[in-house]
Amino acid sequence: MGAVNVWTMAEKPTGSLSKEDRQKIVEGKLGLHKIDESLPGKEAVDARREIVEELTGKKLEAIGAVQLDYDAIKNRNAENVIGGAVIPMGIAGPIKVCGDYANGSFYVPFATTEGALIASINRGAKALTLSGGVQVRVIEDAMARAPVFRLESVKDVKEFLHWLKEHEAQIKEAANATTKHGEMRSIRPFVLGNNVWLRLSYHTGDAMGMNMVTIASEAACAYIEESFEKARFVAVSGNMCSDKKESLVNNLYGRGKSIIADAKIPEKVLSEVFGIDAEQANDTNIRKNLLGSARAGSLKYNGHFANVIAAIFAATGQDLAQVVESSSGYTWTEVRGKELYVSITLPSLEVGTVGGGTGLPTQKEALSMLGVQGPGNPSGRNSLSFAEIIAAAVLAGELNLICALSSRELGRAHSKLGRAKK
After folding, report:
1. b vs e for 310-346, b when ≥16 Cβ sit within 10 Å of the residue's Cβ?
2. Which residues contact 286 (CB under 8 A, 6 or more apart)?
3. Residue 71 is a catalytic residue
4. Surface-to-core class of residue 188, CB atoms within 10 Å of its CB (0-12 exposed, 13-18 middle, 19+ buried)
5. Hey, what's the torsion of the CAs at 52, 57, 58, 60, to 10 degrees?
6. How many CB atoms sit inside 10 A of residue 86's CB?
7. Which of 114, 159, 246, 262 is catalytic?
8. Distance from the CA of 300 to the CA of which of 17, 65, 123, 165 falls in 20 to 30 A?
C-alpha cells in the first residue's frame, strides 16, 4: 500500500480528458467513474475533482491536498475518489490491559472531531492503570450472516427444518469450500410463517469477515436450494444477521467478538482522580445507564460506548457503519466495601486487522502502534488482541463519564475542551 502523498496546488499534476468526454460528464451523459477507464490513478482523481469543482462552483483545495494511492484504493476501498478527508487523531494511555491475547500497556489511537473525548478516555485509562489494569476476556468469536428462504406452507417448513439437521455437514462443506481463512461453525434457524432465516455463524480469522461470510453463505444457499427444491432462496441477508442495525438478536447471540472487561477501582483512586466515592458512581450508573435506558426503551444500557468505538474504528480502518451494533452493550457497577467494581459487556464488537480499510496508510500505522496490524500467528490472534484493547478503552471512557457526571464536571470539561473560543 502506498504512502499518503501530499502536493501543494502548484505542484499537483492535472489529469487530461478529451473535450468530448469532459463535456459528456458535465452534461450528465457520462458517469464520473468512467474517468478511471481513460486515466491512471492520481490523474483520474484530479480530473474528477476539477469537474466536480466546475459543477458545484466550489474550490476543493483542502480535499485535493490530501491524495491517497488511488491505484491501491480502486475496487477495494472507495469509488469516484476526489481526494481525502482528514480527521484529527490523538492517543489515550497508557492503559494496562490484562487479557488472554493483549497483555501490557497500550497507547490507543482515536480519530475524532469531538473535543474532550480523548481527554476523557485518557483520565479513565489513568484510573484503571493505577487500579492494576483491566481484565478482559473474549467469550465468543463468530461473524454471522442470515439468509432468508420462502416455503409454500408450514408443512414444508417443518420438513425443511428436519432436512437442515440431516444435511448440516454438507451445508458447511459447501460454505467452507469458498475460503481458506474462514469456517462455518453453526446454523441456527428462525421461523415466521412460511419464512425461514438461517443464522450462519463463522470463524473468520483476523478479518472482520463480512465479505468472506457473504460469499460462503451464498454458496451454502445455492446447495440448499438445489438439494431441497421446496425452499426458495430469497436473499443472502434477511436482517437476522443483523448487520449495521441495532437488534436484540445480536445482543442475545453475539456477532463478531462478544467480550467483557472489568476492574476494581480503590477508594483512593476514586477520590484522587475523580473526587467521588463508590456510592456516587454506582448510583449514577444505575439511574442513568440502567433505569434511564429502560425508561427510554433503548437497547443500549451504557453511557457512550459509541463515542469510543467510532473514534477507534475511524483511526484503524474498521467498517464505520458497524459502530451501530458494535457499540451496543451494558455497563454494570457494584459497591464492594469502599471499592467500585465496574464492567462493560460488548456482545457484538465487529473488528478485523486485515481487509477493508485496515491496509490504508494511516490506519495501518495505527494498528501497528497497538502491535496488531495484519494477520496473527495463529490466525485470529491479532483481531482478538485488538478486540481486548478496544474493550479496555471502552471501559476507560465509560468509567470517566460516570465519574464526571457524578462530580458534575461534564459541562465544565466540554466548555474548556469542546467549544469554539470566541
Report:
1. bbbbbbbbbbeebbbbbbbbbbbbeeeeebbebbbbb
2. 333
3. no
4. middle
5. 30
6. 13
7. 114
8. 123
A 10 A CB-CB count for 248 gives: 10
Residue spans per domain, the chain: 1-6+24-86, 89-141+257-417, 147-235
Instruction: State whether the Cα torsion 402-406-412-415 is positive or negative.
Output: positive
| pTM over the 0.90 mark | yes
Instruction: Say which of 36, 46, 319, 409 is annotated catalytic.
Output: 319
Give the separation between CA 306 and CA 300, rounded to whole angstroms: 10
Peptide bond into 189 cis (omega under 30): no
The amino acid at 266? P
Angle between helices 117-130 and 305-316 (to 10 degrees): 100
Class of domain 89-141+257-417: alpha beta
- C-alpha atoms less than 13 angstroms from C-alpha of 151 in its C-beta half-sphere: 21
The verdict on whether 43 is a catalytic residue reads no
User: In degrees, to the nearest 5, what angle opens at C-alpha 365 toward C-alphas 361 and 369?
Assistant: 175
One pLDDT digit (tens) per residue for the chain, 422 residues: 344 443 333 333 344 788 888 898 988 899 999 898 889 888 999 999 999 999 999 999 999 998 788 888 888 899 999 999 999 999 999 999 999 999 999 999 999 999 999 999 999 999 999 999 999 999 999 999 999 999 999 999 999 999 999 999 999 999 999 999 999 999 999 999 999 999 999 999 999 999 999 999 999 999 999 999 999 999 999 999 999 999 999 999 999 999 999 999 999 999 999 999 999 999 999 999 999 999 999 999 999 999 999 999 999 999 999 999 999 999 999 999 999 999 999 999 999 999 999 999 999 999 999 999 999 999 999 999 999 999 999 999 999 999 999 998 866 655 565 555 54
Domain spanning 1-6+24-86: CATH 3.40.50: no
Cβ 311 vs Cβ 111: under 8 Å: yes
For this structure, is 114 an active site residue? yes
User: Distance between CA 150 and CA 234 in Å, rounded?
Assistant: 7
Cell matching residue 313 = 474504528
Does CATH number 3.30.70.420 belong to domain 147-235? Answer: yes
